[in-house]
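Researcher: Let's do a round of design. I'm pasting the structure tokens now; please hold your answer until I've finished.
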């Protein structure tokens, strides 16, 4: 399993007229968590793209529990529980400073080439992920 945490502070532009974070921003924060996890694991998403590999979202889900508000400091908890194969499944939990769960969800991405054809993860990606999934 791979786990990562990163923080974001809610900006005013991310809130609606009620002062509550607009729901679509959670998916942006999921992306921040995903790209931070990959970067810190040793394979920035930018490097995958430079090698002709893309990771489009094929499924996205988010369940909301409590509202985030302007200037809240949030923690994005990102996990990969299964060894990535042709797809990668990431799970996210967003908490506030009080450690209250605000939202949780997941995204599933497919490895594709620039021409849109599915591919297995590149060797470099497999090598970086191998220590996290020794029994797979």
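Researcher: That's everything. Go ahead.
Model: Designed sequence:
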């Amino acid at each position: 399993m791979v786990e990562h945490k990163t923080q974001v502070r809610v900006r005013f532009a991310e809130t609606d007229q009620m002062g509550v974070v607009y729901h679509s921003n959670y998916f942006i924060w999921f992306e921040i968590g995903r790209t931070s996890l990959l970067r810190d694991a040793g394979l920035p998403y930018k490097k995958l793209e430079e090698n002709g590999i893309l990771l489009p979202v094929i499924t996205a889900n988010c369940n909301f529990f409590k509202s985030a508000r302007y200037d809240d400091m949030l923690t994005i908890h990102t996990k990969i529980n299964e060894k990535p194969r042709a797809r990668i499944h990431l799970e996210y939990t967003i908490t506030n400073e009080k450690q209250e769960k605000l939202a949780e969800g997941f995204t599933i991405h497919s490895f594709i080439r620039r021409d849109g054809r599915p591919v297995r993860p590149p060797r470099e990606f497999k090598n970086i992920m191998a220590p996290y999934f020794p029994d797979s």
